[in-house]
Amino acid sequence: MISVNNQIVLITGASSGIGASCAKVFAQAGAKLILAARRCDRLQEFTKTLNLPDDKIHLLQLDVCDHTAVESAISNLPPDWSKIDILINNAGLSRGLNKLYEGDFQDWEEMIDTNIKGLLYLTRYVVPSMVKRNRGHIINIGSIAGHQTYPGGNVYCGTKAAVKAISEGLKQDLLGTRVRVSSVDPGMVETEFSEVRFHGDTERAKKVYEGLTPLTPNDVADVVFFCTTRPTHVNINEVILMPVDQASATLVNRKL
């Protein structure tokens, strides 16, 4: 196990859910955190709970879908924060459960822009410095949806399949360097995911998790942390984790 003490960790989508849980676990381990999120107010409120000194935390209000904003944010990091050791591409979302031929174009755009393009933008601007220093780790938060398609998941599943392929391709491109790439792909995790998917319909979102025990964001953060703390010659390529009450993307055990 290697230490992440004083390593610089950039986490996207850090204001809630898996991103916030990753921030907590890395903060407890002594890492320096660059936390990025669209919702600045919420990010600031969350970071108060971490109780970190100023030299341990740097906040970015950032929409990962905005190519120019990502370039500017990374290029203009203060010198003490510019050498990112760990990139956690966590920002992502799902919209709707429509049949493909009845899909909403705006929903498609949001998923593709966030889940694929946002991940690509961050990777493109952060990884060159890792290659130059011959060290670093990229963690992409994928999904069981990238391995198994389910009814109504069409475009979302497509974006997560893209994350899987991008992770594999990046690992191949980095062969010969000491930069590591991991994809952490959870099944059902109780976050704002379903509420976002159903455009704020909280009652419908709650029903997704009724009668079973889903994963928590902390469960996923623990796996992310495990990947980053393996000996430097070890690369955890891919981890699929699901709750015991889930056997596949579509098969779950509900006790109602």
From TrEMBL:
GO function term, MF aspect, one: oxidoreductase activity, acting on the CH-OH group of donors, NAD or NADP as acceptor
Cross-referenced InterPro entries: NAD(P)-bd_dom_sf, SDR_fam
Superkingdom of this protein's organism: Bacteria
Keywords assigned by UniProt, alphabetized: Oxidoreductase
Gene3D superfamilies for the chain: NAD(P)-binding Rossmann-like Domain
Entry similarity comment: Belongs to the short-chain dehydrogenases/reductases (SDR) family.
Name this protein carries in UniProt: Short-chain dehydrogenase/reductase SDR
Source species: Nostoc azollae (strain 0708) (Anabaena azollae (strain 0708))
